[in-house]
Each structure stands twice: as structure tokens, then as C-alpha cells.
Task: inverse folding
């Protein structure tokens, strides 16, 4: 049974420049995952087992550390340093990865652990 996932984004600068948007998307399934990466951790592989990103409506990754010390790499993609939430919607997911069989995470911070959250919405048809 499909369900509606509502989203919104808002950001701005004191000068008045900004972006505000919101909407919703029908999804058939939603899943979330969380992991804590120890400080100065080596690569940690998460088996997401998603071979067809065309079936994804959105992919969101958040980290408690947003200073670039955490990086993420999807199968066949280059590493991306996390400096804020990674929010991919629709066709933009393909710009990040051709598949999400495995997500590799690393925390280079010498002082802090990183809490990672992942939220994925699926369209099964």
C-alpha cells in the first residue's frame, strides 16, 4: 500500500537570499538505518542491497559531524565528504550512484564519533 511522504526545505541568508520548497511524493515502502562510526574509524561497509536506483524516490543521509571528516562512497562512485545532509530526490540519486548495493562510510575525526542516519523511499512499480 502506498503512502504519502511529505518533505520541505528552507534556508536563507541575512541578506534575504534563500530557498524554500516543499511537496510530497507517493512511495510504496520506506526504510531507515542508523550507525555510529567510532572516531578515526576505517571504512565501514553497509550492505543496502539496492541494485536499481530507478526504484528510489529519495535517499537522505545525515551525520552528526558535518565538518567533512565523514565521507561516504556508493558502489562505483567517488567519495563524498559530508558537510551537511545529503538529500537526493528522484533522478538526482543517479548522479550519486548507479546502485546502492554497498555504502562505505569513514570517520576521519580524531576526537568525535559520528552518528549516521539514512532514510530511503521506494517506488516498487
Result:
Amino acid at each position: 500500500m502506498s503512502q504519502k511522504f511529505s518533505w520541505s526545505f528552507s534556508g536563507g541568508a541575512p541578506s534575504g537570499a534563500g530557498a524554500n520548497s516543499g511537496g510530497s511524493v507517493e512511495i510504496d515502502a520506506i526504510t531507515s538505518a542508523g550507525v555510529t562510526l567510532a572516531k578515526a574509524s576505517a571504512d565501514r561497509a553497509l550492505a543496502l542491497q539496492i541494485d536499481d536506483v530507478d526504484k528510489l524516490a529519495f535517499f537522505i543521509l545525515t551525520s552528526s559531524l558535518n565538518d567533512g571528516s565523514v565521507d561516504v562512497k556508493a558502489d562505483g562512485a567517488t567519495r563524498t565528504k559530508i558537510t551537511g545532509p545529503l538529500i537526493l530526490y528522484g533522478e538526482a540519486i543517479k548522479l550519486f550512484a548507479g546502485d546502492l548495493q554497498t555504502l562505505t562510510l569513514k570517520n576521519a575525526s580524531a576526537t568525535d564519533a559520528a552518528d549516521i542516519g539514512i532514510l530511503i523511499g521506494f517506488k516498487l512499480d
In short: Residues 4 and 26 are 5 Å apart (CA to CA). The chain has a mean pLDDT of 94. The first helix runs from residue 93 to 96.
